[in-house]
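Fresh eyes needed here. Kindly weigh in on this sequence plus structure tokens:
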Amino acid sequence: MRHILKSEGQAVVELVLVLPLILVMVFAIVEFGFALNSHLAVSNAAAEGARYGSLGTAPGDGTCALSTVRGRALIASGENLDCSDIAVSYPGAPGSAARGDSVVVRVSHDYQFITPLGSLLVLLGAVGFPDHLTLEVCSTGRLEQAPASVARGGSAC
């Protein structure tokens, strides 16, 4: 009867059973924090780009110069984005953009997970867990003055 009442090793077995669930919870909290930070950076970049674009600033080319809408959005993101993640358009009928028209800044960023949360969930039986999230934000501003030689095109938010 003494042998049945012994509980040696019970704590180790319980730890092995509960540890994966604790790790999932900790990784999920950490991942949520980093994903929220990335979403805020993307949202701030789109809003700052639309604000700067409404002043009549040139949209910018692929170089993202600091004096362009794309460059300003890149700086507002804390340079967490690539220049190719930022798109600037002036929706409306064909022709040149004029005062009062809209400027639309779209930012799309692929957020890569930093914790092994996906691998751990797949190990626990989750199927089809993505390895990244696409964060997309669109912001619109009204042109206070028209930028020089910018054609309309693109869609609104």
